[in-house]
Amino acid sequence: MRVGILTGGGDCPGLNAVIRAAVRKGIFHHGDEFVGFMEGWRGVLEDKTMPLTIDTVSGILHLGGTILRTSRTNARKKEGGIEQCIATIQRNKLDAMITIGGDDTQGVANALVQKGVKCVGVPKTIDNDLSGTDVCFGFDTAVSIATEAVDRLHSTAEAHNRVIVCEVMGRDAGWIALYSGIAGGADAILVPEKPIDLDEVCAIVKERHARGKYFSIIVVAEGAKMPASGGLATHGDKVDEFGHARLAGIGQYVADEIEKRTGFETRAVNLGHTQRGGTPTAFDRMLATRYGSAAIDLVHQGKFGRLVVLRGTEITDIPLADAIAKNKTVGDELLALGRGLQPILKK
Ligand code: F6P
Q1: Pocket residues for ligand 1 (CB within 6 Å)?
Q2: Whose CA is nearest to atom 10 of ligand 1?
Q3: Which end of the chain, C or N, has fewer beta carbons within 10 A?
Q4: pLDDT tens-place string over residues 167-204
Q5: Which H or E run contains 165?
Q6: Which of 251-275 are b and which e, b meaning 16 or more Cβ less than 10 Å from the residue's Cβ?
Q7: DSSP 186
Q8: Number of domains in the chain
Q9: 304 contacts 96 by C-beta, under 8 angstroms
Q10: With contact defined as beta carbons under 8 Å apart, do 304 and 120 qualify?
Q11: pTM of whole model > 0.85?
């Protein structure tokens, strides 16, 4: 078969491992040929391709980023975009597409499936908020990077008797904040799922101070809501093609409020794109390899309009439409785990 592959949305450690696994399994096991589309759906709209062969996917397993590059180009927002994608897919004589991306990328894939294009999706986002799968590749790497940062912030915060607020990614869900906050021993973890209670955060900091702990670490997800307005902290008013605002600033806001209310010197750090860059962890390489291999197998089983997912320890698949229906947010049990370790929090 001739199979197209693309990577869309924000990049994510493990993208290259997915591409490599699909191509190697496809060529060695199924006798396939591959076409790589550059920069997500933009490459399909503009017919910008690169060959995907055993040679071109060699040596990429451990590399961050994506050899296909990526974009947030939304084919559904372009006049005639879906038809243009179909024309490119036909021109390249493709039997199927493997789309590696989050809900936005899979939303376009699902629109193509409705028009008869044979797509199989692979779930990708460091935010880990895609429904239907227990874990997205890239999440483990992001959590490892954020946890190391939280560890490092402890010693400098302690040396200076400071509060440090560490802002991590997580637009709609607080998975990275919760995991890195708990793994790193943060004193408070603020997530999009729960309104920020600044009185409570300040009470935690003061209680620590009162028992001789003159420093505190707070982890906040970029998508946690501003307490006064309930809105998001954004940088400017630009939105990308999928309508997402550029998030930034909730960490600085929380830091300023803590300093004002407690009098303790407080700093904010935004980890930003460091969480997405660089080499994937062994866990993510493994998961990405399982996803890539399963995706090309699904193509050969003729199971289109499906997304490969991890359920427990098994790789299986679900309808693409189910995955994009709603975000997977952090549940009460995990939220309670973080809160349960603090002396003054009752619930
Ligand atoms: O991929 C999702 C994400 O990591 C969000 O957490 C974040 O808001 C966004 O990407 C930022 O990406 P970019 O700066 O590339 O728009």
Answers
A1: 9-10, 125-127, 169-171, 222, 240, 247
A2: 10
A3: C
A4: 999 999 999 999 999 999 999 999 999 999 999 999 99
A5: strand 163-168
A6: bbbbbebbbebbebebbbbbbeeeb
A7: -
A8: 2
A9: yes
A10: yes
A11: yes
